[in-house]
Write a structure and sequence with these properties.
Layout (H helix, E strand, L loop, with lengths): L1 H58 L13 H62 L4 E4 L4 E4 L1 H6 L11 H5 L1
Antiparallel strand pairs: 1-2
Length: about 170
């Protein structure tokens, strides 16, 4: 008899339990959808910026400022990134300018060196002609390496031949 008396109460308890579960599941789904939408909206500028940077780095595309508005943290991040890009572009321009100036100076110095070497070669040739014409002998001693040069005329003036007078300092001392 008591089971029959409490049967409607137990049936109602069961319906309330199922209803509570259904309402909890619905509330959870609605909360999940709302949070996902809110997060998507909040992070959309950051996701777009990330995709733009990734596209620029993988495609070899020139890096250009990102678009983004707002005074929130993501807007500030995008503004900071754009400032960094501007600074990087300025530095690249300066480096290009310095490289061009260095290349110009290198070309100028290479030209000057070529001219100096040509002049030195001409001077040596003239010195050789002058020494040959004057019939004077020439000798040179490099004290650092202890190497000696005796011109053929100098060796001849000493009464030797280049084959019998080796290019050694001891040859002159003897």
């Amino acid at each position: 008899p008591t089971d029959e008396a409490y049967a409607p109460v137990r049936a109602m308890e069961q319906r309330v339990l199922y209803g509570s579960i259904l309402v909890s599941v619905l509330a959870g789904l609605i909360a999940w959808w709302w949070v996902a939408t809110l997060l998507r909206r909040e992070f959309q500028p950051m996701l777009a910026a990330t995709e733009a940077v990734e596209t620029m780095t993988h495609d070899g595309e020139a890096i250009h400022p990102l678009t983004g508005q707002g005074d929130d943290e993501i807007g500030q991040l995008i503004t900071g990134f754009n400032t960094l890009l501007t600074t990087l572009d300025t530095q690249r321009t300066e480096l290009r300018h310095y490289r061009e100036r260095l290349e110009e100076k290198l070309a100028e110095r290479t030209q000057a060196l070529s001219e100096a070497l040509a002049q030195q070669s001409l001077d040596r040739e003239r010195l050789g002609f002058a020494l040959e014409a004057s019939r004077d002998g020439l000798w040179d001693w490099d004290a650092v390496t202890n190497s000696v040069y005796y011109s053929p005329r100098y060796v001849e003036m000493l009464g030797y031949t280049p084959e019998t007078f080796p290019a050694l300092l001891s040859s002159w001392e003897e």
